[in-house]
Amino acid sequence: MNGLTGIVRDTWLIFRHNVRISLRQKAGIVFGVLQPLLYLVLFGPLFATIGTWETLIPGLLVQVGLFSAGLSGFGIVFDAQAGVLDRLRVTPAHRVSLLLGRVLAGSLTLLIQSITLIAVGYAFGLRATLPGVLLALALMALLGVGLAALSNAIALVMDPDAFAPVMSTAVVPLVLLSGAFLPMSMAPGWLDALSRLTPFRYVLEAIRELFVGRYATMTVVAGVAVTAVLSVVCVLVGTRVFNRENA
Amino acid sequence: MIKTSALSKTFPGGVEAVRGVDLTVETGEIVGFLGPNGAGKTTTMRMLTTLLRPTGGSATVAGHDLITDPKGVRRSIGYVSQSGGIAPANPVGEELELHAMLYGMRPAEARDRVAEVLGRLGLTALRERPGGALSGGQRRRFDLAFGLVHNPSLLFLDEPTTGLDPQSRAVLWDRIRDLRDGVGLTVFLTTHYLEEADTLADRLFVIDHGVIVAEGTPAELKGGTGTLDDVFLSITGRSLRDDPPGGEVPGGSQPAGVTAFEARVADGTTEGSGAAGEER
Protein backbone atom coordinates (compact mmCIF):
# COMPACT_ATOMS: atom_id res chain seq x y z
CA MET A 1 0.00 0.00 0.00
CA ASN A 2 1.55 3.31 -1.04
CA GLY A 3 2.34 6.10 1.40
CA LEU A 4 -0.67 8.42 1.31
CA THR A 5 -3.28 5.67 0.81
CA GLY A 6 -1.72 3.75 3.68
CA ILE A 7 -1.73 6.79 5.96
CA VAL A 8 -5.39 7.53 5.16
CA ARG A 9 -6.42 3.88 5.73
CA ASP A 10 -4.49 3.52 8.98
CA THR A 11 -5.78 6.89 10.22
CA TRP A 12 -9.35 5.83 9.42
CA LEU A 13 -8.93 2.52 11.28
CA ILE A 14 -7.55 4.20 14.40
CA PHE A 15 -10.12 7.02 14.19
CA ARG A 16 -13.05 4.59 13.89
CA HIS A 17 -11.74 2.49 16.76
CA ASN A 18 -11.30 5.52 19.04
CA VAL A 19 -14.74 6.86 18.16
CA ARG A 20 -16.24 3.49 19.13
CA ILE A 21 -14.41 3.67 22.44
CA SER A 22 -15.64 7.24 23.04
CA LEU A 23 -19.23 6.33 22.20
CA ARG A 24 -19.09 3.53 24.75
CA GLN A 25 -18.01 6.06 27.35
CA LYS A 26 -21.19 8.10 27.14
CA ALA A 27 -20.62 9.54 30.59
CA GLY A 28 -17.40 11.12 29.31
CA ILE A 29 -19.21 12.95 26.51
CA VAL A 30 -22.10 14.02 28.75
CA PHE A 31 -19.89 15.31 31.54
CA GLY A 32 -17.58 16.95 29.02
CA VAL A 33 -20.40 19.19 27.88
CA LEU A 34 -22.11 19.47 31.24
CA GLN A 35 -19.75 22.10 32.63
CA PRO A 36 -20.27 24.64 29.80
CA LEU A 37 -23.99 23.84 29.88
CA LEU A 38 -24.01 24.73 33.58
CA TYR A 39 -22.32 28.03 32.69
CA LEU A 40 -24.97 28.49 30.00
CA VAL A 41 -27.85 27.83 32.37
CA LEU A 42 -26.59 29.39 35.58
CA PHE A 43 -24.38 32.21 34.27
CA GLY A 44 -25.91 32.88 30.83
CA PRO A 45 -29.06 34.65 32.03
CA LEU A 46 -26.94 36.87 34.26
CA PHE A 47 -24.50 37.61 31.43
CA ALA A 48 -27.43 38.34 29.10
CA THR A 49 -28.28 41.37 31.23
CA ILE A 50 -25.03 43.04 30.14
CA GLY A 51 -24.06 41.12 26.99
CA THR A 52 -25.46 38.90 24.28
CA TRP A 53 -25.70 35.16 23.80
CA GLU A 54 -23.65 35.64 20.62
CA THR A 55 -20.83 36.88 22.86
CA LEU A 56 -21.11 34.28 25.62
CA ILE A 57 -21.57 31.06 23.65
CA PRO A 58 -18.39 31.44 21.57
CA GLY A 59 -16.60 31.82 24.91
CA LEU A 60 -18.15 28.61 26.18
CA LEU A 61 -17.12 26.89 22.93
CA VAL A 62 -13.48 27.85 23.47
CA GLN A 63 -13.80 26.72 27.08
CA VAL A 64 -15.14 23.31 26.11
CA GLY A 65 -12.46 23.08 23.39
CA LEU A 66 -9.68 23.64 25.89
CA PHE A 67 -11.12 21.25 28.44
CA SER A 68 -12.22 18.53 26.00
CA ALA A 69 -9.52 18.36 23.31
CA GLY A 70 -6.93 19.91 25.62
CA LEU A 71 -7.27 17.05 28.08
CA SER A 72 -7.88 14.31 25.50
CA GLY A 73 -4.28 13.12 25.88
CA PHE A 74 -5.38 11.48 29.10
CA GLY A 75 -6.39 8.39 27.10
CA ILE A 76 -2.91 7.89 25.74
CA VAL A 77 -1.52 7.83 29.28
CA PHE A 78 -3.62 4.75 30.02
CA ASP A 79 -2.75 3.17 26.67
CA ALA A 80 0.95 3.70 27.29
CA GLN A 81 0.71 2.19 30.76
CA ALA A 82 -1.32 -0.80 29.53
CA GLY A 83 1.18 -1.50 26.73
CA VAL A 84 -1.41 -0.75 24.02
CA LEU A 85 0.76 1.98 22.53
CA ASP A 86 3.81 -0.27 22.19
CA ARG A 87 1.64 -2.99 20.70
CA LEU A 88 0.41 -0.57 18.03
CA ARG A 89 3.87 0.85 17.42
CA VAL A 90 5.19 -2.58 16.51
CA THR A 91 2.61 -2.92 13.74
CA PRO A 92 3.53 -1.58 10.29
CA ALA A 93 0.84 1.12 10.65
CA HIS A 94 2.09 4.61 9.89
CA ARG A 95 3.12 6.32 13.09
CA VAL A 96 1.47 9.57 12.05
CA SER A 97 -1.80 7.62 11.65
CA LEU A 98 -1.59 6.26 15.18
CA LEU A 99 -1.58 9.88 16.36
CA LEU A 100 -3.94 11.40 13.78
CA GLY A 101 -6.63 8.75 14.30
CA ARG A 102 -6.75 9.59 18.00
CA VAL A 103 -6.59 13.30 17.38
CA LEU A 104 -9.44 13.27 14.85
CA ALA A 105 -11.55 11.24 17.25
CA GLY A 106 -10.86 13.86 19.94
CA SER A 107 -11.82 16.57 17.48
CA LEU A 108 -15.08 14.77 16.63
CA THR A 109 -15.95 14.57 20.32
CA LEU A 110 -15.36 18.32 20.57
CA LEU A 111 -17.55 18.88 17.52
CA ILE A 112 -20.43 16.91 19.09
CA GLN A 113 -20.06 18.87 22.31
CA SER A 114 -19.98 22.17 20.38
CA ILE A 115 -23.14 21.32 18.43
CA THR A 116 -24.91 20.39 21.68
CA LEU A 117 -23.87 23.67 23.27
CA ILE A 118 -25.03 25.72 20.29
CA ALA A 119 -28.35 23.84 20.10
CA VAL A 120 -29.06 24.46 23.79
CA GLY A 121 -27.89 28.03 23.29
CA TYR A 122 -30.59 28.50 20.66
CA ALA A 123 -33.19 27.50 23.22
CA PHE A 124 -31.91 30.28 25.48
CA GLY A 125 -31.89 32.97 22.83
CA LEU A 126 -28.78 32.58 20.67
CA ARG A 127 -29.48 33.87 17.17
CA ALA A 128 -26.33 33.18 15.20
CA THR A 129 -26.42 32.91 11.41
CA LEU A 130 -26.32 29.38 9.98
CA PRO A 131 -23.22 29.98 7.79
CA GLY A 132 -21.60 31.59 10.80
CA VAL A 133 -22.35 28.56 12.97
CA LEU A 134 -21.07 26.14 10.32
CA LEU A 135 -17.86 28.11 9.85
CA ALA A 136 -17.42 28.34 13.61
CA LEU A 137 -17.84 24.58 13.91
CA ALA A 138 -15.21 24.08 11.19
CA LEU A 139 -12.89 26.33 13.16
CA MET A 140 -13.62 24.39 16.34
CA ALA A 141 -12.85 21.09 14.59
CA LEU A 142 -9.52 22.50 13.41
CA LEU A 143 -8.78 23.82 16.88
CA GLY A 144 -9.70 20.39 18.27
CA VAL A 145 -7.11 18.71 16.02
CA GLY A 146 -4.38 21.04 17.23
CA LEU A 147 -5.27 20.86 20.91
CA ALA A 148 -5.69 17.09 20.88
CA ALA A 149 -2.32 16.62 19.14
CA LEU A 150 -0.63 18.88 21.67
CA SER A 151 -2.39 17.17 24.55
CA ASN A 152 -1.26 13.73 23.35
CA ALA A 153 2.30 14.99 22.94
CA ILE A 154 2.35 16.45 26.45
CA ALA A 155 0.83 13.27 27.86
CA LEU A 156 3.64 11.22 26.32
CA VAL A 157 6.44 13.31 27.82
CA MET A 158 4.91 14.23 31.17
CA ASP A 159 4.82 12.17 34.35
CA PRO A 160 1.48 10.32 34.01
CA ASP A 161 0.42 11.29 37.54
CA ALA A 162 1.06 14.95 36.83
CA PHE A 163 -0.79 15.17 33.52
CA ALA A 164 -4.36 15.67 34.77
CA PRO A 165 -3.67 18.20 37.54
CA VAL A 166 -1.12 20.18 35.50
CA MET A 167 -3.22 20.34 32.35
CA SER A 168 -6.50 21.15 34.06
CA THR A 169 -4.73 23.95 35.94
CA ALA A 170 -3.02 25.27 32.78
CA VAL A 171 -6.31 25.39 30.92
CA VAL A 172 -8.01 27.77 33.41
CA PRO A 173 -5.83 30.84 32.72
CA LEU A 174 -6.01 30.13 28.99
CA VAL A 175 -9.82 30.18 29.16
CA LEU A 176 -9.83 33.39 31.19
CA LEU A 177 -7.24 35.10 28.96
CA SER A 178 -9.17 34.21 25.83
CA GLY A 179 -11.97 36.50 26.99
CA ALA A 180 -14.42 33.64 27.21
CA PHE A 181 -16.64 35.27 29.82
CA LEU A 182 -16.14 38.97 29.11
CA PRO A 183 -14.58 40.62 26.05
CA MET A 184 -10.93 41.43 26.72
CA SER A 185 -11.50 44.93 25.32
CA MET A 186 -12.94 45.64 28.78
CA ALA A 187 -9.72 44.49 30.50
CA PRO A 188 -6.96 46.77 31.87
CA GLY A 189 -4.07 47.34 29.47
CA TRP A 190 -1.68 44.75 30.94
CA LEU A 191 -4.33 42.02 30.93
CA ASP A 192 -5.39 42.90 27.40
CA ALA A 193 -1.74 42.73 26.27
CA LEU A 194 -1.24 39.38 28.03
CA SER A 195 -4.38 38.05 26.41
CA ARG A 196 -3.04 38.94 22.96
CA LEU A 197 -0.12 36.56 23.56
CA THR A 198 -2.47 33.57 23.72
CA PRO A 199 -3.89 32.10 20.51
CA PHE A 200 -7.35 31.41 21.89
CA ARG A 201 -8.34 35.08 22.01
CA TYR A 202 -8.02 35.26 18.21
CA VAL A 203 -10.03 32.06 17.75
CA LEU A 204 -12.73 33.30 20.09
CA GLU A 205 -13.01 36.75 18.50
CA ALA A 206 -13.29 35.14 15.06
CA ILE A 207 -16.15 32.91 16.24
CA ARG A 208 -17.95 35.93 17.71
CA GLU A 209 -17.66 37.71 14.36
CA LEU A 210 -18.89 34.63 12.48
CA PHE A 211 -21.89 34.25 14.80
CA VAL A 212 -23.10 37.75 13.99
CA GLY A 213 -22.66 37.23 10.24
CA ARG A 214 -19.42 39.10 9.65
CA TYR A 215 -17.34 36.69 7.59
CA ALA A 216 -14.71 38.68 5.71
CA THR A 217 -13.13 40.73 8.45
CA MET A 218 -9.54 40.92 9.62
CA THR A 219 -10.63 39.43 12.95
CA VAL A 220 -11.93 36.32 11.17
CA VAL A 221 -8.84 36.10 8.98
CA ALA A 222 -6.62 36.40 12.05
CA GLY A 223 -8.65 33.78 13.92
CA VAL A 224 -8.54 31.30 11.05
CA ALA A 225 -4.80 31.90 10.47
CA VAL A 226 -3.95 31.49 14.16
CA THR A 227 -6.04 28.30 14.42
CA ALA A 228 -4.47 26.84 11.25
CA VAL A 229 -0.91 27.64 12.33
CA LEU A 230 -1.55 26.38 15.86
CA SER A 231 -2.98 23.11 14.55
CA VAL A 232 -0.19 22.48 12.05
CA VAL A 233 2.50 23.21 14.66
CA CYS A 234 0.77 21.04 17.27
CA VAL A 235 0.38 18.10 14.87
CA LEU A 236 4.06 18.40 13.88
CA VAL A 237 5.10 18.50 17.53
CA GLY A 238 2.80 15.58 18.32
CA THR A 239 4.16 13.48 15.46
CA ARG A 240 7.71 14.24 16.50
CA VAL A 241 7.07 13.22 20.09
CA PHE A 242 5.17 10.13 18.94
CA ASN A 243 8.08 9.05 16.77
CA ARG A 244 10.68 9.75 19.40
CA GLU A 245 13.06 6.93 20.22
CA ASN A 246 11.76 4.71 17.44
CA ALA A 247 13.80 3.04 14.76
CA MET B 1 16.19 -15.19 11.58
CA ILE B 2 18.00 -12.72 13.86
CA LYS B 3 21.59 -11.63 13.51
CA THR B 4 23.04 -8.78 15.50
CA SER B 5 26.52 -7.34 15.46
CA ALA B 6 27.77 -5.17 18.32
CA LEU B 7 24.23 -3.93 18.90
CA SER B 8 24.34 -1.18 21.50
CA LYS B 9 22.13 1.28 23.27
CA THR B 10 23.34 4.22 25.29
CA PHE B 11 20.58 6.33 26.76
CA PRO B 12 20.79 10.12 27.04
CA GLY B 13 22.92 10.85 30.06
CA GLY B 14 25.44 8.23 29.04
CA VAL B 15 23.89 5.13 30.62
CA GLU B 16 25.03 2.12 28.59
CA ALA B 17 22.14 -0.32 28.77
CA VAL B 18 23.36 -2.64 26.00
CA ARG B 19 27.06 -2.67 25.19
CA GLY B 20 27.63 -4.60 22.00
CA VAL B 21 25.43 -7.65 21.71
CA ASP B 22 26.27 -10.29 19.08
CA LEU B 23 23.75 -13.04 18.65
CA THR B 24 22.32 -15.28 15.98
CA VAL B 25 18.93 -17.01 16.08
CA GLU B 26 18.09 -19.67 13.51
CA THR B 27 14.68 -20.27 11.94
CA GLY B 28 12.40 -22.50 14.04
CA GLU B 29 14.35 -22.11 17.27
CA ILE B 30 12.98 -21.15 20.65
CA VAL B 31 15.71 -18.99 22.09
CA GLY B 32 15.74 -17.82 25.67
CA PHE B 33 17.34 -14.50 26.57
CA LEU B 34 18.24 -14.74 30.19
CA GLY B 35 19.46 -12.20 32.65
CA PRO B 36 18.74 -10.52 35.96
CA ASN B 37 16.63 -7.39 36.24
CA GLY B 38 18.36 -4.49 34.52
CA ALA B 39 20.80 -6.70 32.59
CA GLY B 40 19.69 -5.31 29.22
CA LYS B 41 17.17 -7.96 28.14
CA THR B 42 14.22 -5.69 27.55
CA THR B 43 16.32 -2.93 26.00
CA THR B 44 17.76 -5.45 23.53
CA MET B 45 14.28 -6.75 22.73
CA ARG B 46 12.90 -3.25 22.29
CA MET B 47 15.68 -2.52 19.82
CA LEU B 48 15.02 -5.72 17.88
CA THR B 49 11.30 -4.90 17.70
CA THR B 50 11.97 -1.32 16.46
CA LEU B 51 10.68 0.32 19.65
CA LEU B 52 14.10 1.72 20.50
CA ARG B 53 16.69 3.04 18.10
CA PRO B 54 20.12 1.43 18.59
CA THR B 55 22.99 3.81 19.16
CA GLY B 56 25.55 1.39 17.75
CA GLY B 57 26.01 -1.82 15.80
CA SER B 58 23.68 -3.43 13.31
CA ALA B 59 21.03 -6.13 13.11
CA THR B 60 18.99 -8.09 10.63
CA VAL B 61 15.60 -9.28 11.86
CA ALA B 62 13.47 -11.66 9.76
CA GLY B 63 15.52 -10.72 6.71
CA HIS B 64 15.13 -6.95 7.15
CA ASP B 65 17.76 -4.47 8.23
CA LEU B 66 16.73 -3.04 11.58
CA ILE B 67 17.98 0.46 10.85
CA THR B 68 17.12 0.95 7.18
CA ASP B 69 13.95 -1.15 6.96
CA PRO B 70 12.15 -1.01 10.33
CA LYS B 71 8.76 -1.30 8.61
CA GLY B 72 9.85 -4.56 6.99
CA VAL B 73 10.82 -5.82 10.43
CA ARG B 74 7.42 -4.80 11.86
CA ARG B 75 5.55 -6.62 9.09
CA SER B 76 7.40 -9.85 9.85
CA ILE B 77 7.45 -10.01 13.63
CA GLY B 78 5.03 -10.39 16.49
CA TYR B 79 5.76 -8.81 19.84
CA VAL B 80 4.31 -9.41 23.27
CA SER B 81 5.60 -6.91 25.81
CA GLN B 82 5.87 -7.41 29.55
CA SER B 83 2.77 -5.31 30.13
CA GLY B 84 0.88 -7.06 27.34
CA GLY B 85 -1.20 -4.50 25.50
CA ILE B 86 -4.83 -5.20 26.25
CA ALA B 87 -7.11 -2.21 26.74
CA PRO B 88 -9.24 -2.92 29.80
CA ALA B 89 -12.50 -1.40 28.54
CA ASN B 90 -12.75 -2.82 25.02
CA PRO B 91 -13.83 -6.25 23.79
CA VAL B 92 -10.60 -8.09 23.06
CA GLY B 93 -11.95 -9.55 19.81
CA GLU B 94 -12.57 -6.07 18.45
CA GLU B 95 -9.07 -4.96 19.45
CA LEU B 96 -7.63 -8.03 17.74
CA GLU B 97 -9.49 -7.29 14.51
CA LEU B 98 -8.14 -3.73 14.49
CA HIS B 99 -4.67 -5.11 15.16
CA ALA B 100 -4.98 -7.50 12.20
CA MET B 101 -6.23 -4.76 9.89
CA LEU B 102 -3.22 -2.62 10.75
CA TYR B 103 -1.20 -5.34 9.05
CA GLY B 104 -3.18 -4.70 5.86
CA MET B 105 -5.88 -7.36 6.24
CA ARG B 106 -9.38 -6.58 4.94
CA PRO B 107 -12.18 -6.71 7.56
CA ALA B 108 -13.47 -10.17 6.53
CA GLU B 109 -9.93 -11.54 6.39
CA ALA B 110 -9.18 -10.06 9.80
CA ARG B 111 -12.33 -11.60 11.30
CA ASP B 112 -11.42 -15.03 9.91
CA ARG B 113 -7.85 -14.78 11.09
CA VAL B 114 -8.87 -13.65 14.58
CA ALA B 115 -11.32 -16.58 14.79
CA GLU B 116 -8.56 -18.98 13.73
CA VAL B 117 -6.00 -17.69 16.24
CA LEU B 118 -8.51 -17.58 19.10
CA GLY B 119 -9.55 -21.13 18.26
CA ARG B 120 -5.92 -22.27 18.30
CA LEU B 121 -5.36 -20.65 21.70
CA GLY B 122 -8.67 -21.84 23.18
CA LEU B 123 -10.02 -18.30 23.58
CA THR B 124 -13.01 -18.23 21.23
CA ALA B 125 -15.58 -18.03 24.01
CA LEU B 126 -13.89 -14.96 25.49
CA ARG B 127 -13.66 -12.74 22.42
CA GLU B 128 -16.47 -10.37 23.46
CA ARG B 129 -15.09 -9.85 26.96
CA PRO B 130 -13.47 -6.52 27.81
CA GLY B 131 -9.79 -6.87 28.61
CA GLY B 132 -10.35 -5.89 32.23
CA ALA B 133 -12.64 -8.89 32.78
CA LEU B 134 -9.99 -11.50 31.90
CA SER B 135 -7.90 -13.50 34.36
CA GLY B 136 -4.11 -13.17 34.31
CA GLY B 137 -3.65 -16.39 32.35
CA GLN B 138 -6.37 -15.48 29.85
CA ARG B 139 -4.84 -12.04 29.35
CA ARG B 140 -1.45 -13.56 28.65
CA ARG B 141 -2.96 -15.92 26.07
CA PHE B 142 -4.73 -12.97 24.45
CA ASP B 143 -1.40 -11.13 24.44
CA LEU B 144 -0.06 -14.10 22.51
CA ALA B 145 -3.00 -13.81 20.10
CA PHE B 146 -2.04 -10.18 19.39
CA GLY B 147 1.48 -11.31 18.64
CA LEU B 148 0.27 -14.04 16.28
CA VAL B 149 -2.78 -12.64 14.51
CA HIS B 150 -0.85 -11.52 11.42
CA ASN B 151 0.96 -14.84 11.10
CA PRO B 152 4.52 -13.62 11.80
CA SER B 153 7.59 -15.71 11.16
CA LEU B 154 9.25 -14.52 14.36
CA LEU B 155 7.67 -13.91 17.76
CA PHE B 156 9.25 -11.84 20.53
CA LEU B 157 7.99 -12.55 24.03
CA ASP B 158 9.14 -10.31 26.85
CA GLU B 159 8.76 -12.10 30.18
CA PRO B 160 5.69 -13.98 28.93
CA THR B 161 4.82 -15.79 32.16
CA THR B 162 5.75 -13.25 34.81
CA GLY B 163 3.02 -13.08 37.43
CA LEU B 164 1.26 -16.26 36.29
CA ASP B 165 0.51 -19.21 38.53
CA PRO B 166 2.35 -22.47 37.71
CA GLN B 167 -0.65 -23.99 35.92
CA SER B 168 -1.20 -20.97 33.63
CA ARG B 169 2.54 -20.88 32.99
CA ALA B 170 2.56 -24.51 31.91
CA VAL B 171 -0.41 -23.90 29.59
CA LEU B 172 1.39 -20.98 27.94
CA TRP B 173 4.56 -23.05 27.51
CA ASP B 174 2.52 -25.73 25.76
CA ARG B 175 1.01 -23.16 23.41
CA ILE B 176 4.44 -21.76 22.55
CA ARG B 177 5.83 -25.24 21.85
CA ASP B 178 2.78 -26.07 19.71
CA LEU B 179 3.37 -22.99 17.62
CA ARG B 180 6.99 -23.85 17.01
CA ASP B 181 6.18 -27.47 16.19
CA GLY B 182 2.99 -26.69 14.24
CA VAL B 183 3.86 -23.68 12.10
CA GLY B 184 7.62 -23.49 12.48
CA LEU B 185 7.49 -20.20 14.36
CA THR B 186 10.77 -18.82 15.65
CA VAL B 187 10.49 -17.55 19.22
CA PHE B 188 12.83 -15.20 21.03
CA LEU B 189 11.84 -14.81 24.66
CA THR B 190 13.25 -13.03 27.65
CA THR B 191 12.75 -14.54 31.05
CA HIS B 192 14.17 -14.51 34.49
CA TYR B 193 12.65 -17.89 35.32
CA LEU B 194 15.38 -20.48 35.01
CA GLU B 195 12.81 -23.26 34.92
CA GLU B 196 11.16 -21.60 31.94
CA ALA B 197 14.46 -21.23 30.15
CA ASP B 198 15.40 -24.82 30.89
CA THR B 199 12.06 -26.30 29.85
CA LEU B 200 11.19 -24.22 26.85
CA ALA B 201 14.29 -22.96 25.11
CA ASP B 202 16.39 -24.83 22.54
CA ARG B 203 19.19 -22.40 23.14
CA LEU B 204 19.99 -19.70 25.68
CA PHE B 205 21.84 -16.43 25.69
CA VAL B 206 22.79 -15.02 29.05
CA ILE B 207 23.14 -11.25 29.26
CA ASP B 208 24.54 -9.32 32.15
CA HIS B 209 25.56 -5.69 32.44
CA GLY B 210 24.59 -5.19 28.80
CA VAL B 211 26.81 -7.88 27.26
CA ILE B 212 26.28 -11.53 26.36
CA VAL B 213 28.22 -13.55 28.88
CA ALA B 214 27.24 -17.05 27.79
CA GLU B 215 25.48 -18.98 25.06
CA GLY B 216 24.49 -22.59 24.59
CA THR B 217 21.78 -25.19 24.98
CA PRO B 218 20.49 -25.61 28.52
CA ALA B 219 22.37 -28.91 28.69
CA GLU B 220 25.61 -27.34 27.47
CA LEU B 221 25.34 -24.53 29.97
CA LYS B 222 24.73 -26.93 32.82
CA GLY B 223 27.63 -29.04 31.61
CA GLY B 224 26.13 -32.19 33.11
CA THR B 225 26.49 -30.84 36.61
CA GLY B 226 24.38 -28.57 38.73
CA THR B 227 21.40 -26.54 37.68
CA LEU B 228 21.01 -23.46 35.53
CA ASP B 229 20.70 -21.57 38.80
CA ASP B 230 24.21 -22.66 39.84
CA VAL B 231 25.54 -21.84 36.37
CA PHE B 232 23.96 -18.43 36.39
CA LEU B 233 25.36 -17.63 39.80
CA SER B 234 28.83 -18.68 38.72
CA ILE B 235 28.66 -16.56 35.56
CA THR B 236 27.24 -13.38 36.96
CA GLY B 237 28.05 -13.61 40.61
CA ARG B 238 24.41 -13.00 41.46
CA SER B 239 21.03 -14.64 41.42
CA LEU B 240 18.73 -14.19 38.46
CA ARG B 241 16.21 -12.30 40.57
CA ASP B 242 18.72 -9.86 42.08
CA ASP B 243 18.30 -6.21 41.30
CA PRO B 244 21.28 -4.73 39.46
CA PRO B 245 23.84 -3.10 41.73
CA GLY B 246 23.59 0.36 40.18
CA GLY B 247 19.84 0.57 39.60
CA GLU B 248 17.52 -0.59 36.85
CA VAL B 249 19.88 -0.01 33.94
CA PRO B 250 23.29 -1.62 34.03
CA GLY B 251 26.48 0.26 33.56
CA GLY B 252 29.04 -1.54 35.66
CA SER B 253 32.10 -3.54 34.74
CA GLN B 254 32.38 -7.04 33.26
CA PRO B 255 31.15 -9.51 35.86
CA ALA B 256 33.65 -11.72 37.55
CA GLY B 257 32.27 -15.17 36.73
CA VAL B 258 32.80 -15.12 32.96
CA THR B 259 36.21 -16.74 33.01
CA ALA B 260 34.94 -19.71 34.97
CA PHE B 261 32.18 -20.14 32.48
CA GLU B 262 34.48 -19.87 29.46
CA ALA B 263 36.08 -23.13 30.54
CA ARG B 264 32.74 -24.86 30.37
CA VAL B 265 31.35 -23.66 27.06
CA ALA B 266 33.20 -25.28 24.20
CA ASP B 267 31.52 -23.61 21.22
CA GLY B 268 33.45 -20.35 21.25
CA THR B 269 30.49 -18.27 22.33
CA THR B 270 32.52 -16.39 24.87
CA GLU B 271 34.55 -14.83 22.05
CA GLY B 272 31.43 -12.91 21.23
CA SER B 273 31.40 -11.58 24.72
CA GLY B 274 34.96 -10.47 24.34
CA ALA B 275 34.15 -8.64 21.12
CA ALA B 276 31.21 -7.05 22.85
CA GLY B 277 33.54 -5.84 25.54
CA GLU B 278 35.74 -4.10 22.96
CA GLU B 279 32.73 -2.08 21.79
CA ARG B 280 32.57 -0.19 25.06
Automatic annotation (TrEMBL), chain A:
Membrane topology value: Multi-pass membrane protein
Family membership: Belongs to the ABC-2 integral membrane protein family.
Claim: Transport is one of the keywords in the record: yes
UniProt keyword annotations, A-Z: Antibiotic resistance, Cell membrane, Membrane, Transmembrane, Transmembrane helix, Transport
Top-rank lineage group of the source organism: Bacteria
UniProt-recorded name of the protein: Transport permease protein
Keyword Transmembrane helix (UniProt): yes
Pfam family, one: ABC2_membrane
InterPro entries listed in its UniProt record: ABC2_TM (IPR013525), ABC2_TM_bact-type (IPR047817), ABC_2_transport (IPR000412), Nod_factor_ABC_transporter (IPR051784)
Residue ranges annotated for the ABC transmembrane type-2 domain, each copy included: 23-245
Localization, UniProt: Cell membrane; Membrane
TM region positions: 29-50, 56-78, 99-124, 130-158, 170-191, 211-237
PANTHER family named among the record's database cross-references: NODULATION PROTEIN J
